[in-house]
Amino acid sequence: MIRILVPLDFSLISSNALDYAIHLFRKARPEITLLHAYGTWSTAMTIKNIDKMIERDSRRTLKELINKTQKEYPEVVLKPRILKDQAISAIAELGDSGDFDYIVMGTKGASGLQEVFLGSVAGGVISKTSAPVIVVPAGYSFRPLEEILVALSDEPLSDRKVADPLRRLAGMHESKIKVLHIAEKGPEEVERALEDFDDLDPSFDYAMGTDDINKDLNHYLLEDSDATLLCLIRKKKSFTSRLLKESVTLKQTFDSPVPLLILHDMV
Predict the structure, then answer these.
(1) 183 or 167, greater pLDDT
(2) pLDDT attached to residue 236
(3) Is 21 helix (H, G, I), strand (E, B) or coil?
(4) pLDDT for residue 233 is more than 50
(5) What is the mean pLDDT of residues 103-112?
(6) Which of 8, 10, 168, 228 meets the CB 3.0–4.6 Å disulfide criterion with 143?
């Protein structure tokens, strides 16, 4: 059984992520845990039983959502989980517990300083968990995974198993895999890195890049690709590297035209 964690804040964005998760995994009859995390601050003015009120309302809302969803998708197992904790730490810790195969969560577009606030939960989870994360853009409706695009650097994986969540999804949907390398010198740079995906029989393409890799990725997705999922592999960087070049993975979270599968290779 595939076990999925879907964080919910009862917004349309998180509800849409749940709908996407159901359609993405429903053939595998998944067990989906619906997590609602809430945090409170204790002050002299705080009502003493506010935590109980929040928990009671959250349980009622989750129960209503589960009953409604279960009627439409009886093959999917839905489980409620409510935690008094800050969202990022709660989601990341559950992701690292080994109890879930994927985290599926929603995000919405932002730019500049807005990214800090509007995308803080998705970006924070990605930066803190080792679990595979699927990020669903606001308003995105599920489309069959006929093709998955893997954006690849010229560095091979530390372990081929890093790509196992990609293999699992591709096998489940019989997806074609296309590997994309955005660089200045052409495809020969990624010859060793491509070997990590040879069992998936991928096609390969490369694009001449600019100084804005995220812009290049989105242009390729919109103009030159039929992919309905973009796979990014988050790699460990030195402190200096992080200062000079902000994470492509985290930035892509805010404005990708298709959902992202984010894998972690942090060895």
Answers:
(1) 167
(2) 74
(3) helix
(4) yes
(5) 73
(6) 228
Q: What are phi and psi of 80, to 5 degrees?
A: -85, 150
Strand partners, 3: 31
Look up residue 22 and give its two tokens: 């159901």
Q: What is the pLDDT of residues 7-58, one digit of tens each?
A: 999 999 999 999 999 999 999 999 999 999 987 655 544 555 677 788 889 8
The stretches of 97-212 forming alpha helices (DSSP H) are 114-118, 120-128, 164-173, 191-194
Q: Topology of 3-137 in CATH?
A: Rossmann fold (3.40.50)
Dihedral sign of CA atoms 216, 218, 224, 228 in order: positive
Q: Are 135 and 253 in contact (CB under 8 A)?
A: yes
- Asked if residue 250 lies in contact with residue 147, where contact means CB atoms within 8 angstroms, the answer is no
pLDDT band at 111 (very low <50, low <70, confident <90, very high): very low
Residues 249 and 265 sit within 8 Å (Cβ to Cβ) = no
Residue that the structure tokens 């009862």 belong to: 10
Parts of the chain belonging to CATH 3.40.50.620: 3-137, 147-265
- Residues in Cβ contact with 110 at an 8 Å cutoff, skipping those fewer than 6 apart: 117, 118, 119, 254, 255
Q: What is the pLDDT of residues 123-135, one digit of tens each?
A: 889 889 999 999 9
Residue owning tokens 């992919």? 227
How far is residue 15's CA from residue 236's CA, in Å, rounded to a whole number?
32
> Which architecture, in CATH terms, is 147-265?
3-Layer(aba) Sandwich (3.40)
The neighbouring-strand residues paired with 229 are 148
Q: What is the pTM of this model?
A: 0.89
Cα angle 85, 90, 93; round to 5: 140
Rounded to whole angstroms, the Cα distance separating 44 from 158 reads 52
Q: Which amino acid is at 266?
A: M
